[in-house]
Write a structure and sequence with these properties.
By secondary structure, the chain is α/β, with parallel strands linked by helices. The protein has 14 helices and 19 strands. The strands form four sheets. A seven-stranded mixed sheet has the order 13-12-11-14-15-19-16, with helices on both faces. A hairpin with a 7-residue loop joins strand 8 and strand 9. Pathway: Cofactor biosynthesis; adenosylcobalamin biosynthesis.
Length: 409
């Protein structure tokens, strides 16, 4: 059994009696140099620093250790901590976790924020922009940073997103003798660096500009995305996503991604949702990457520069829970995409030409599903008056693959 003991910046004095006993009786204690320095000397006890890279060497390290092994973690080992990594490496039954107060809990206590009023986002070892989807009017965010450069980067990105007046409080060495903080607006933060053990508390009020890009609901304005004209327009995009039904943690294949708008909005609509964006044009693929970064989902949008016909036959791609085809339809691609769908998966395909519409009628006869013709008109000036200008009609085919139980039946 590997005992994972959470330890705060207050060190040995902050550990519970039970946690102290675990450390005292351990044959081997593993932790970062900073964590090991917080412990008193204990005779012949073996102490090891965490390996690097961690995931590749951790299992062998704990496997070589003595019968009683303690691994030190910062605060709550299951909050962006080594506890989660260990459980994945050696299994839940081989690990027992003993949490201390997390930095997130201490930060909320200093701010006087209740747990239910806060979103916690970890930036440790991840792209800093991943907090951007949470920047909404009235939001309270606790952001776990990798190092002392984090607060300045958070402030810059928040200001660029229209939250320059948001209050940013950086807390470092929470619970320890060197605890400190600094508070100002995101616009006023500048390049100031803090100590590395830092947590950012962000309190958003009224945004500087109209929040066209914020919130989970799909149908953002077309000009919120960089594009060259190849984009599924917002009204049609919203209906497609309503039928794709993003769920937490699920995977979308966006085949022929163009600007990436559908796949990006899929990620924004559900926590941990991911997109595999397939785009054969390198310039457009770069644009998908840039748009994903702008919306804070770059870590959840995996861009592949290849054809749709090659992608649907790539066994290395994660199997999709949903598939979107915005154009350039091909029967072989459609059949392969349907076959790749997980049970209960959803597929949406759009056609704007007579030829592609005929193909959708054909697959509808074969596979079922539903066909819908979408016609949108926008009010525009017409001389001294106003008139309705129709956009190009879109035929939408939607298919839901039956759950496995129904397939078996």
């Amino acid at each position: 059994m590997i005992e994972v003991v959470g330890i705060g910046d207050d060190g040995w004095s902050g550990l519970s009696e039970a946690s102290r006993h675990l450390v005292e009786r351990a044959d081997t204690v593993i932790g970062s140099p900073r964590q090991l320095d917080l412990l008193p000397s204990m005779g012949q006890q073996e102490r090891r620093t965490l390996p690097s890279p961690l995931r590749d060497n951790l299992q062998s390290l704990v496997g070589e250790s003595g019968r009683h092994t303690v691994v030190l973690a910062s605060g709550d080992p299951l909050l962006s901590g080594i506890g989660t990594t260990l459980i994945k490496a050696v299994g839940r039954e081989a690990v027992r976790v003993h949490p201390a107060l997390s930095s997130e809990t201490l930060a909320r206590a200093r701010m006087g924020w209740s747990a239910e009023s806060v979103d916690v986002v970890t930036l440790v070892g991840r792209s800093t922009d991943r907090f951007l989807p949470f920047v909404t009017p009235g939001a309270r965010l606790v952001l776990l940073c990798s190092d002392g450069d984090g607060p300045a980067e958070v402030a810059r990105l928040a200001a660029e997103a229209g939250a320059g007046t948001a209050q940013l409080t950086a807390w470092w060495h929470l619970g320890g003798q060197n605890e400190g903080s600094h508070r100002t607006t995101c616009a006023a933060w500048g390049d100031e660096r803090t100590p590395d053990l830092v947590v950012v508390c962000l309190e958003v009020g009224v945004l500087d500009a109209e929040p066209q890009t914020l919130g989970p609901a799909p149908g953002r304005a077309d000009d919120a995305f960089e594009h060259d004209g190849l984009i599924t327009k917002r009204d049609v995009r919203a209906t497609a996503l309503a039928r794709l039904r993003p769920w937490p943690g699920q995977v979308l294949w966006d085949l022929g991604a163009g600007s990436g708008a559908v796949g990006i909005e899929w990620c924004l609509a559900a926590p941990r949702a991911r997109t595999v964006a397939i785009e054969r044009d390198p310039d457009r693929a770069d644009r998908v990457t840039q748009n994903a970064a702008r919306f804070g989902v770059s870590s959840r949008v995996d861009v592949h520069v290849t054809s749709t016909s090659a992608a649907v036959r790539d066994d290395d791609l994660p199997r999709p829970d949903a598939v979107f085809l915005g154009g350039g339809l091909d029967r072989d691609v459609l059949d392969a995409a349907i076959a790749a769908l997980r049970p209960g998966g959803r597929l949406v395909a759009h056609a704007v030409t007579r030829e592609s519409e005929a193909l959708l009628h054909e697959v509808h006869r074969t596979h079922g599903g539903s066909l819908t013709r979408l016609a949108v008109e926008h009010l525009e000036p017409l001389g001294r008056f106003n008139g309705w200008k129709p956009a190009r009609s879109v035929v939408q085919w939607c298919l839901t693959r039956p759950p496995r139980s129904k397939e078996s039946a």
